[in-house]
Specification:
The protein has 153 residues and is an alpha+beta fold. The chain has one domain. The chain contains three helices and six strands.
Length: 153
C-alpha cells in the first residue's frame, strides 16, 4: 500500500464561486429560511447555556458545570452543521441573532451581496462588499428578476 500522497491528492477541493441572480436567491430562500431559523434558535440557546455556565462557575457549583458545558458543546455543534449547510448553498450568515444572509451577486459588472433578513418575504436588498446589512439598498429590476438588476439608494 502506497502511503505517499502528493499535495494534489490531499488538497481541499476549491469550489467555483457562484453568483446568485435575484431569482436564484429568492428560490434558495425555501431552504435558507429553515436553516436560518435553526441557527437563530440554537444561537439563543448557546447564549443562554453560556450564561448558565458562567453563573454556575461564579456560584462555585462545579458539580453542575459539566452537564452545562456538554450542552454548550452540543449546541455549538448544531450551529456548525447549520453553517456547513449554508456554505453548501453558497451563502454567508452575517448575523446569527438576527438571521441575516448574504448572497454573492454581480451588479453593474461588480461583485456585491444580495441581502436577506429572517422574516422578510423575499430578497429585495443589496450592499457593497465592504459594507454590511446596515448599508443596504433596494434592488430595482428593469428586465425581469434575475437578469438585469440595478440599484437605488
Amino acid at each position: 500500500m502506497n502511503t505517499n500522497y502528493t499535495a494534489q491528492q490531499t488538497a481541499p477541493v476549491q469550489r467555483m464561486r457562484h453568483f446568485f441572480t435575484l431569482d436564484e436567491a429568492n428560490n434558495a430562500l425555501v431552504l435558507v429560511r429553515r436553516i436560518v431559523a435553526d441557527v437563530v434558535g440554537h444561537y439563543g440557546k448557546l447564549i443562554e447555556v453560556h450564561e448558565t455556565v458562567e453563573a454556575l462557575e461564579t456560584a462555585g457549583l462545579f458539580g453542575q458545570i459539566e452537564h452545562a458545558r456538554e450542552e454548550l458543546v452540543l449546541t455549538a455543534d448544531k450551529i456548525r452543521v447549520c453553517l456547513e449547510e449554508l456554505e453548501d448553498v453558497g451563502v454567508e450568515l452575517c448575523d446569527w441573532e438576527l438571521g441575516i444572509i448574504d448572497f454573492p451577486a454581480m451588479m453593474d459588472r461588480r461583485e456585491v451581496r444580495f441581502c436577506w433578513r429572517a422574516g422578510e418575504p423575499r430578497v429585495t436588498h443589496w450592499h457593497e462588499l465592504e459594507s454590511c446589512h446596515l448599508g443596504r439598498y433596494e434592488v430595482v429590476n428593469h428586465h425581469g428578476a434575475g437578469r438585469s438588476v440595478s440599484a437605488t439608494r
